[in-house]
Q: What sequence folds into this?
């Protein structure tokens, strides 16, 4: 399964751009219920991936995705590194285990389950899982890209009503209620950017 | 720093703060001397508050002992990144590394004291974890 180099480069750039544009916003969300560095951590991860863009785009798709995951682990720092890293590394491994990408919803489900195990979290704990599972659900229903993006944004906003049960925010108890989770927010931003990129550059 | 006796279990300290990690490692070293392989990782890749899987992996390599390595962590991200680092270490060595559910300072000191007497990894971990309610 050879990736289209332009596709990989385009996706990397779309993700980097949306995180860069929202670095301060993500840091502000994290200041409210975490340690205030989620935006800069994500930006550092995206820059590291972007710096390897050309090399990544020449790899077979599963290898490229897995390597992006490892790069995120090594560069994001904080809990988001292993979580996003696990997601991509598992997607890469699952893609390698198949010869078709048309069952991507299944690939994604397995990868999200791996993230849940890594963070020992469940849906409703006020984490990025509260965006990942609904996005997977939408993909499995073959929703349009616009619907998937809308679903991601709505799911992120719904984390405001949740009480954090994992991560730094969980130390705040009820005081975590009323704030959107930074990890859910970055996840929604990335999902939306990826959906828009596919929408503009490829047939859905 | 050379490790005096690789027959003893190694100790790794992981904190979000480089100062905390280094300070505890210093405390352990002063209490048990050179007979326990010891290393620390603190902060993210830039040395700011946070944790770094690559740095933790390096610390495990530094404190490596064929008897195993006990890892002590402070907050959640430190534990998640330590698990990641242990996976990156790969089999079969990953099976010889344990993250202890114990307070960072007391756990590391008591584990090092136990390790310095040549105790097994499971004994070192059990002794440290007795400190947790």
A:
């Amino acid at each position: 399964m050879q990736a289209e180099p332009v596709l990989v480069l385009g996706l990397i750039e779309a993700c980097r751009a949306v995180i860069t544009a929202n670095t301060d916003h993500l840091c502000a969300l994290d200041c409210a219920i975490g340690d205030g560095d989620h935006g800069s951590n994500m930006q550092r991860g995206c820059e590291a991936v972007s710096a390897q863009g050309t090399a990544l785009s020449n790899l077979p798709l599963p290898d490229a995705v897995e390597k992006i995951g490892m790069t995120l682990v090594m560069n994001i720092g904080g809990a988001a590194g292993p979580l996003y890293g696990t997601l991509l590394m598992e997607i890469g491994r699952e893609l390698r285990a198949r010869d078709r990408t048309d069952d991507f919803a299944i690939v994604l489900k397995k990868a999200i389950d791996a993230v849940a195990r890594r963070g020992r979290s469940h849906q409703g704990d006020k984490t990025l899982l509260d965006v990942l599972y609904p996005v997977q659900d939408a993909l499995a229903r073959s929703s349009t890209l616009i619907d998937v993006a809308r679903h991601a944004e709505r799911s992120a906003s719904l984390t405001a009503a949740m009480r954090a049960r994992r991560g730094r925010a969980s130390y705040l108890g009820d005081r975590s209620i009323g704030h959107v989770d930074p990890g859910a927010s970055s996840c929604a931003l990335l999902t939306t950017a990826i959906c828009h990129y596919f929408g503009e550059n490829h047939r859905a | 720093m050379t490790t005096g006796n690789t027959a003893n279990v190694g100790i790794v300290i992981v904190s979000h703060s480089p100062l905390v990690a280094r300070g505890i490692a210093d405390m352990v070293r002063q209490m048990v001397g050179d007979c326990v392989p010891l290393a620390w990782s603190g902060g993210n890749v830039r040395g700011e508050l946070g944790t770094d899987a690559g740095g933790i992996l390096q610390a495990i390599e530094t404190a490596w002992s064929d008897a195993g390595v006990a890892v002590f962590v402070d907050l959640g991200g430190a534990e998640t990144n330590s698990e990641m680092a242990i996976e990156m270490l790969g089999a079969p060595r990953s099976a010889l590394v344990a993250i202890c559910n114990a307070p960072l300072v007391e756990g590391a000191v008591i584990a090092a004291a136990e390790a310095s007497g040549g105790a097994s990894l499971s004994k070192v971990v059990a002794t440290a974890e007795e400190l947790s309610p």
User: Anything to note?
Assistant: Chain A has nine helices and no strands. The interface with chain B takes residues 35, 37, 41, 44, 73-75, 77-79, 81-83, 85-86, 118-119, 166-168 of chain A (CB under 8 Å). The first helix of chain A runs from residue 5 to 33. The two ends of chain A are 19 Å apart (CA to CA).
